[in-house]
Write a structure and sequence with these properties.
15 strands, 7-stranded mixed beta sheet, about 30% strand, alpha/beta, about 270 residues
Length: about 270
């Protein structure tokens, strides 16, 4: 059992934190400050903080991490933290990043979403040394797995968390893990913006379905259907080749089967 700290914020990081806490002593969680969230803009804790508090793990929430920050462990596992760790702080310990892609493909903020949108047949997890350049550090461990045709982002992130915890077991057990330079073509997974969410219904149906899968269940694709604005959570390519929404959520309403929503409009 290793004594480690974890830097995480998003749901993926929260999942990895919980898996690590089952096998290791977690000295502290480094996470982003609480922030307004949702329609009501109420201040909410990051998902990783909710896990840490439930497990009794101390939480540290600086506006920005700086040199001299004591997290109580010589090794920090970073997973979907979301803030830049300065080189001065990286130099004070061993920082290992968990990234849900086969680096150097899809460096950046939305690797799972961009992989699904692009129609990638596989992705994976990379454990690498955290360096100043975004997701560019040498690799300690890497494993690929397929993206199944029906997988949405939630399914891929869950599989990635399981793989990450297993890979970290071997890396953390090795006092001097071998670090290999990243090899291959670098691509970047930019943050999902408003236009990424908009379903341009004139586009091919398979492309639209990939966008829906990529943004479910955590962001949501947006469309104008029957003259109404809705979020589309599930969709498929119909037998005639057209785009067929299966689950939608009208603004201000709940998720429901698309057929039921259409019947309610009559």
């Amino acid at each position: 059992m290793a004594r480690i700290a974890v830097a995480a914020t998003a749901p993926f990081g929260a999942d990895v934190l919980e898996r690590l806490a089952a096998r290791h002593e977690i000295s502290a969680l480094l996470t982003r400050p609480d922030a307004p969230s949702g329609r009501g803009r109420r201040v909410a804790s990051p998902p990783a903080k909710e896990v840490a508090e439930r497990l009794g793990i101390p939480v540290v929430q600086p506006e920005r991490p700086v040199a001299g920050l004591d997290l109580g462990a010589p090794i920090v596992v970073v997973c979907a933290y979301g803030l830049l760790v300065p080189e001065s702080l990286l130099a004070e310990g061993t920082w290992l990043n968990v990234h849900p892609s086969l680096l150097p493909r899809w460096r950046g903020a939305a690797p799972v979403e961009r992989a699904i949108m692009a129609g990638d047949a596989e992705t994976g997890v990379t454990i690498h040394e955290t360096v100043a350049e975004l997701d560019a550090g040498p690799v300690a461990a890497q494993e690929l797995f397929p993206i199944e045709p029906e997988d949405d982002a939630g399914a891929v992130y869950a599989r990635a968390a399981e793989v990450a915890a297993r890979l970290l077991e071997a890396v953390l057990a090795d006092p001097a893990p071998l670090l290999a330079p990243q090899a291959g073509t670098v691509t970047y997974a930019s943050k999902i913006g408003p236009d990424d969410r908009h379903l341009h219904l004139e586009r091919p149906a398979d492309e639209l379905v990939r966008v829906v899968r990529a943004l479910s269940p955590h962001i949501g694709a947006r469309a104008e259907l029957e003259g109404r604005s809705v979020t589309v959570w599930r969709a498929r390519v119909a037998d005639d080749g057209s785009f067929e929404p299966l689950e939608v959520q009208p603004d201000g309403g709940r998720r429901m089967p698309a057929d039921a929503w259409r019947r309610g409009l009559k």
